[in-house]
């Protein structure tokens, strides 16, 4: 694995070479003010080792990547019942589109677009208070990562709430189609908070190990569910750029608007990459490039 | 005018003949519980007379018909500036569609679909409190109708708020595109209340006289603006059934989901009809039929 | 009427004053090569007189304005049966959009968008050969105009055919939904030819007189149908700019991509205006402006 | 492998047990008249063996499955240049939708929806005659299958042409956006013929081996391209049911409206299944079920 270590350092150097870091998300000040010229990559291997390069000690806002964890929890609570409320198909639309929601009568296309994740959060919430549900989500993430040092950034959650009109529109639309059990305010309070979780790439790579079916990995969900979560990440994990990610990177992944990507090599590795500048699909620009090179070099592909 | 009186009574008898009253709106209990087998028609003539037939003493929820009054007030306050925030084109969509709003980047197609009327209400509100803006709206309607006996039904307004997720979705979407100056809660509080105004057909026909350019009519807006309001009512006043209404009835009109329609014969008459059962476009079924017959019999057409 | 004559000459001078003539249509060479800096206006009055100003002796390609004549013929042949195949609602879309056709299952929104006019042409065609149908259309136009000196420009028709992929797409889509009786090739052959009719504004204003219900006018359709054709022109005659035209000009009209507009003052006048540069809706830029001023000055409005 | 053989026979028996065979495609008589109560499955293993069960000797119309072969040929001819003309994203729409084509300005979302496959066929055609291009396609398929006994059914191709208005609409639309180099007639002539190829499941499973990267397999494309073709099959191979197929079956696959599915277990097997009745996405109903069971039993998944 000296080889993988040197590949990671090479990816880090290459990332810092080019000038085009992409554009950071601008919709809340906490994301808009992040310096785009940062890069980190961490790989948690099936044998238990964690290899890293770059700005690995900088916590970042994981944002939509938490949708993987909340989906796992929602499936644990409700099983296949969840699929009566949300679909499993790629959307062919932007992450926050409301058009499709109207056309498909209030059933979001998949759990990784915002509307779908709001439904998933409502399912995790159940009849509980947001505090309890958030407690379960954080506990799940910490258990997966094997670290207690993971927290929600309250300032980010507050900004998301203040600037979250589009998500309020989605939630009220879902409510108007009878696809929310709790009030939009309660669901979004929970949603904005779990999206505001912060982790380093090392913590995120460790947390992603529950999606790698291997003996040394935390057994938080069944092997069968692992496969299905990976299938959803592959087809729907990068919004309207999912097909391109599958074509070029070739493994399941889930991106967040904070510039992080969690990617899984089934049976072998959990990878976290972070660079805050985004490409036109809203996914990390340098992060995607680095993953494409890494999977090519390591011959890590599911195809 | 003995002739017109007898035509109105004939329309009333004919309306009660057929069994198909259409379906009343079901989204709030106050509308769902209205007996569909009711019909009233009132005509306020340029010479000052009011002729009526049917259930003319039953107040009903005018709902979207208030969009005409709030548009007149908004144009009075802001003039053509308003058109930077809302368009003047027929929508080709249902009254509460959010699809077009996303496709056209947050600028509603016209002031008579819900999204457009929410913007208009925001303009009427300005920097005032809802109470003040509602005071102006009620004063305008009462002055137009020449009657102080017109009130808001608070139970209807409360129900609209409780069941108004679709309108909250529209308002939050508008806010996300920077097309609201006040909070969604404040704008919708005002919107739901002015939609909850109740009038009899007699009061509504009288109130509509400000849209008839004639010497005996209340001069609340300029003749030029009257023409333009009538043009908008003709092209956009019946949602996705506006073309059909123009084709069959042939005069400007604005319908409400409570089953009322206000229609204008330029220079001659203001007509109010009411029958709570709706056709597939969400416009009064028997009311539309009666208007089509009335304009044919009286040769009242703008074409 | 010295007054009207001087107004027309003033409109002509004003049109030539401004630099912004708009953009001519570019999709076929015959239209792309027209000099945009031309303007003509003709008014045929109910008393039989024809008043004109500008380039009144220049024949231009009337294009979509023929949709009014073919609709009149189709209604004469089939009556209200036609409405099972085509709607009467504004489209809220561009003139050649195929999106709505798919969403509404092959029934065009109205007879004035391309898809609707293709259906209307199919209805006019019936079981006849294109030559016969075209003969009827030309005869109708010549009878309306009171002039035999009106012809089809074969070069324009040939170019439309050569560059007409979008219309072929529409026609094949209609066929796939069983809404064509003849082959796409046969219908479009007829369609492209009648759109290639050429007239001067004087001829067009004369031809439009059949839409003015008056004693000196050619009685080609019933008064009732006149009103309905006018209603359709008002709500649908300017594609996605119909609402704006109704608001600003205030009378029924139908535009063509060649820069012509036919507008009707019910009971009083038929107006033809021409200036080949188009605005963003694809309607004559200077022509629309001139009509707005003319109707304001003459107080010609239906509202 | 006795085990796999018995699993296949079990799948065949199970398929014949249930009554719900789904609906056969109805748009051309040749498909509409196929008996739905048929089932066949064949597996070509990396070690060279072919295991089968059911109606393995019945040739069926492979239809859209040829899109995989023509895509491989087009990429061989043009490389990544192809992606300037067609995308790589799931469509979220039906296989023959024209809506998205208009919204995305004539660039089909992916090569496996009809519009995309028409572009791919245009690329394979290049400047050649249809006969030459079809010759190359058949040669490729025969070489992949190791069988000369594979033919085009001319009656099917003729019916597709006769009933192919929707595809003509797509092709003309592409031409109107300058995304066809040949005429719609020429491209569709080629397209309809290669879709009319007939194979047994045994032949199709053998032909699919070029997508399995293994020593005993025909090396028709590079290992890198194999991976990318598999990625596209996974994200886009089942139209609007691609996400569901990935979730339930877990391997790349491409379906055809004739009821066939070609599915690939990377490095291990090429599977062909056939049952002509379709589910609501237009994919083989019993075929999909059988594949889901097979991959579960064999633990064949890429995730």
Automatic annotation (TrEMBL), chains A, B, C, D:
E.C. code: 3.5.1.2
Keyword Ligase included in the entry's annotation: no
Residues that hold substrate according to the record: 64, 114, 160, 167, 191, 239, 257
Top-level EC class: hydrolase
This protein's UniProt keywords: Acetylation, Hydrolase
Catalytic activity: L-glutamine + H2O = L-glutamate + NH4(+)
A GO term, aspect molecular function: glutaminase activity
SUPFAM superfamilies tied to this protein: beta-lactamase/transpeptidase-like
Assigned protein family: Belongs to the glutaminase family.
The protein's assembly and partners: Homotetramer.
HAMAP family registered for this protein in UniProt: Glutaminase (MF_00313)
Matching PANTHER family: GLUTAMINASE (PTHR12544:SF29)
Full protein name: Glutaminase
Source species: Pseudosulfitobacter koreensis
Gene: glsA
